[in-house]
Amino acid sequence: MDDCIQIIFKRVEKNTDHISLAIGFSVVLVFCLMMIPLEAKEEAIASKHWITEMETNTERFERIERYLRGFDQTMWEVGERYEKLYQALKDDNFDLALYHWAKIKVTIENGLMKRPARKMNAEAIFLSTTWPDVNSAFNSKNNTKAWKGFFKARSACMACHFAEKVSFINDQPMFYDSQLK
Ligand code: HEC
Known about the structure:
The protein has helices spanning 2-14, 18-46, 57-67, 71-90, 94-114, 119-127, 130-139, 143-163, 173-176. By secondary structure, it is mostly helical.
């Protein structure tokens, strides 16, 4: 718009003839008016307000829900922490192992909010007995017990993948590099 206003003023300076001034003015004005919707559209495309710009709360929550994804996002974090936990035990850092083990529980529980259909297997295979057993194994700060706990955890992860029909997940370095040698 600023460019248009400058063009209008330049035309005013140059033209002394009133008729050509009026024609020139109209042409530039029409051109400027045509630019307005274009500018508005550009602003909409470049907006960063992908939640607040929506008209209703339902639409806003739908966007958040979609963005927070499903169980894959949960498992991505669980996998990352599992590897860190494995390394923590190799380093005899039991506190770090306990830390990641606690976060894995929170992460899975939050994931079940998103995907309640996974709850039955998660509870039966992982949360009910495996999780507290493994926690006490790490808490013992005894090397042998802690490693026993880790392999119990690993088996539970893999068993749940099998039960949830995603056993191909088990066939990757995270699991085959962390098996009993
Ligand atoms: C409810 C049973 C269940 C438990 C318990 C479970 N998982 Fe999973 N995991 C799944 C499911 C289901 C998927 C596939 C998710 C999808 O398709 O959206 C998955 C996917 C994964 C993935 C792939 C994620 C990705 O998108 O890259 C990893 C890694 C993973 N799990 C690691 C683990 C580890 C490590 C543990 C144990 C600490 C564990 N899982 C425990 C059910 C489980």
